[in-house]
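User: structure tokens for this one?
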Amino acid sequence: MKTIFVNIKTIEHKWYIIDAEGKILGRLAARVASILRGKHKAVYTPHQEVGDSVIIINAEKVAVSGKKWTDKVYYRHTGYPGGLKKETLNKVMARKPAFPLEHALKGMLPKNRMGRKLFKNAKIYAGPTHPHAAQKPIKIELE
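Assistant:
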């Protein structure tokens, strides 16, 4: 078995735009992570960046099922003893509307330097406007 190496210069990187309004948070993040990694391409290689760039608009209007608005908790630590901070999804969305989608997307990418590089190819905006019209993004409709 030979390891496949794709010439980076020959790969065509496209830009896609996805409207997150009414879409389920986890399903949307899984689909975007797949596009960022390049799993939809025939030349997919796990150790190379062959994916495309994704623009997500209306991140503040993403949907969740069940009682996640009140029961889902995000944790962070200040670094000091007893510094564990908790915040529900409702409060996080009020403070930073794009954070839950960013957090879910980061969790679905590899935890290494390639994952950090791939995350930079995702542009997430809370509202319906974005500054990437020059890239001529292709609109994707998710089920």
